[in-house]
Write a structure and sequence with these properties.
This protein is an alpha+beta fold and 376 residues long. The protein contains eight helices and 22 strands. It starts with 6 loop residues before the first strand and ends with a helix. Bound molecules: fe (ii) ion.
């Protein structure tokens, strides 16, 4: 039931604060949790937000002496150790009352018709780059057109996001289709949807692929959203979803100069329950660490997961032209390619690079601060 104005009370011998919002919402917070958040000059350095209060030595007997509301939206709490903390009520209430995080955490549930496309020449302002990065976060990928079809063009677009990541392919990679391919990626065959670098403990989160030259027929990039497919599986069979998101698989990658064998669940979740790193590499995946009694159910889940991600009805095809680049989330989307056939004189050449997801998160947060809060 809605109330006229927010109210606050201290209960349970000063250990619990109860807040009632103007909309009638009720939340409670413990005195220790509130004391830990104190931002007074003795507890936090205001310039960097560094802690001066050691969380590990909080006095367990701390209680709230007094709590009051002032102004339109401020809460002041006085603690038994003499500290006093003032905080914005709306933000605090939202933090205390935040329920469990949904696995999609605000990402768009596919199906999606196509990725948003941005002209490189239009990405000259903070708002435009932020808009592109927000689209990336929602959909899992964006296309950038009008990029110089060479390594400088790739580096220039990557620099909008952050520092490129060095991997076992070097700072950038380059694949040219060959009539005498060494590996599948250099062949003209269809490539099943997969994620890159699953054999690393922390695979790169952001991948850029730039077309230098393409075949006249076939060779489109294929994408499917691992998170949305996990949601389909969750709705179909909760037990299968649990196994898919918890059972660890190893990905041994053993080459003459590389010996890596990182791994994780096929669809990882982070500590708060949101989807994290999806790993798929049908040619590399090793054995799961699974109890005998769960094995049949796990292999059934793996089979169903494969059907979902390989189903063309769930996939988006992007036929990149020279100078067109796709930026996609390698933790979330699986990518592949349709088969192609090179005509005489044609060549299919793609270059690309990786960035850590932290680079993109950092740039997005900095741009939000500038664009939405007007601060630099
Ligand atoms: Fe790949």
């Amino acid at each position: 039931m809605a109330t006229e104005s927010p109210s606050v009370e201290v209960v349970d011998a000063g250990t619990v604060l109860r807040l009632v919002g103007a909309d009638g919402s009720r939340v409670s917070a413990h005195a220790l949790w509130l004391r830990d958040r104190c931002t007074c000059a003795m507890c936090r350095r205001s310039t960097t937000n560094e802690r001066l209060l050691d969380q590990a030595v909080l006095d367990p007997t701390t209680v709230i002496r007094e709590a009051s509301l002032s102004g339109a939206d401020m809460l002041t709490v006085a603690f038994s150790d003499g500290h006093e903390w003032t905080a914005g009520l709306v933000e605090l209430t939202a933090q205390i009352g935040a329920g469990p995080v949904h696995p999609m955490d605000g990402r768009t549930r596919w199906p999606l018709d196509s990725f948003s496309s941005f002209q490189r020449s239009s990405l000259g302002s903070d708002d435009a780059v932020l808009d592109m990065l927000e689209r990336f976060r929602a959909d899992g990928a964006v296309v950038v057109t009008g990029v110089e079809p060479d390594e400088d063009g790739l580096r220039d677009t990557a620099s909008l996001i952050g520092q490129m990541q060095m991997t076992n392919y070097g700072p950038t990679w380059s694949f040219e289709a060959s009539v005498d391919p060494i590996s599948e990626v250099e062949s003209m065959h269809m490539l099943r949807v997969h994620t890159d670098l699953p054999y690393r403990e922390q695979p790169a989160g952001v991948q850029l692929n730039l077309a230098i030259s393409v075949s006249s027929e076939g060779g489109a990039s294929t994408f499917v959203d691992g998170y949305s497919m996990a949601e389909v599986l969750r709705e179909e069979d909760e037990r299968a979803w649990e196994l898919l998101t918890t059972v660890h698989f190893e990905y041994p990658y053993l080459r003459s100069s590389v010996r890596l064998s990182g791994g994780g669940p096929l669809v990882g979740r982070d500590g708060e329950g949101r989807y994290g790193i999806v790993r798929r590499a049908p040619d590399l995946v090793g054995s799961p660490r699974v109890a005998a009694e769960d094995t049949e159910a796990l292999y059934a889940a793996v089979r169903r997961w494969g059907e979902l991600v390989d189903d063309p009805a769930h996939q988006i095809h992007v036929a990149l032209r020279p100078g067109e680049l796709v930026i996609f989330d390698n933790h979330r989307l699986l990518h592949g390619r349709t088969a192609f056939d090179l005509q005489p004189g044609e060549c299919r050449h793609l270059i690309g690079c990786y960035l850590e997801m932290d680079e993109l998160r950092n740039t997005t947060a900095l741009l939000r601060r500038v664009v939405q809060d007007g601060r630099r």
